[in-house]
Write a structure and sequence with these properties.
By secondary structure, the chain is of the alpha/beta class. It is built from 19 helices and 15 strands.
Amino acid sequence: MGSAETSATASPAPQVLVASNRGPVSYSVAEDGSLVSRRGGGGVVSGLSAIGPDAGALWVCSALGDGDREAVHRGVSEPGVKMLDISAETHDAAYNGIANSTLWFVHHMLYQTPLEPVFDSEFRLRWAAYQEFNRSFAEALAEEAAEGAAVLVQDYHLTLAPGMLRELRPDLRIGHFSHTPWAPPEYFRLLPDDVAESVLRGMLGADRLGFLTQRWADAFTACCDAAVGGVGDTRIGVHGLGADADFLRERGHRADVDQRVAELRAEIGNDPDGNLRRTIVRVDRTELSKNIVRGLHAFRQLLDDHPEWCDRVVHVAFAYPSRQDLAVYRDYTAEVARVAAEINAEYGTPYWTPVVLNLKDDFARSLAAYRLADVALVNPIRDGMNLVAKEVPVLAENGCALVLSREAGAHEEMGDDAITVHPYDVNATARALHEGLTMPAGERAERTKRLVAAATATPPTKWFLDQLHALTTTTR
């Protein structure tokens, strides 16, 4: 009986592990001192759910805030989740100092090179913190994983972890997936030589590396060829993440979304003929890479070039604040609001607000905007994929024309049926908006049908399971 009780209560070492900065659950401390948990979503969450509770899966993540750290201190956790209590100072230096202010800027090619980057003594302190952050993950994974387990490391926050883990546990199957673009060699090598080499060699510690598009995979390979003599035995794969059509259609027609559709219709209002005004919809975080300000300038140019659209079209722009602990992001959010207000002051009337801007996150309102979209504007400077481009066509009630930057990863799959734009060309983007607004209904319906097919070909569960299968069948 003793052995039976032991087997019933002891948890076997996990056979599948995921590592990411942000985990599937977060905690906050309520006024009464109790901990409140909140579940997240996304492709990895869906994938882990799909493999079932008997797979012995574990998600290793970082404690991100005071609530998370309090949960770790109290020993509170959810089954299948291990949260690492990395100090707030180390996390900030690794996450904001290196991941978001260095690696993100390199891969999205966002630096103003006359002034930045500057790799000084302060940078070296942050780089040491990034190394420590990655080492904490590698050590936790090495301690937890079963013999021969599969470990899927996520994104640019953890580029060093595969190599560190390989040294600790050579028996493991290690994968790494990049959710961002990958910079071409000439831009990637803005990084100090030792840092660039460490990032590449760290990732090459994996058995297999995954990227969202062939373009990003090829850029990584080119960087390795230029800096470290090739990718060696590491295999490279491409897994484009698609929209979850079933979830979107179910969630997008719940009562709270219906209510927001009605509210948004009222805010958009009717044109002089009594019809609901046409809509150009964008839904983004206020990331510097999303190109929201140029999108607003393109809308202004549309009104200048085609005054017949005045009082007949509304730009519904939902720009949800992101990384507001960084000054450059706060400044960018303020510029979005300033330009929107300027357009409304210049063109608006008591009966027509040209730009309906909202800076407060509301998922139900985003889905409502998808449903009402006549044109979807997705014009990033550079983007690993961009799921908004894939989600809007799924829900658009009358079909939608997709104006899509050639620099979005989604363009690789959807470019044939989108209206392609150069992200820096405001005049061309204005012309594309006009083309979208005037596209014949039949053509728009046919294009939308094909866009939806491309967008939903690899839903999150399939995306994750394909990677897991490829990793577990990889021979190094």
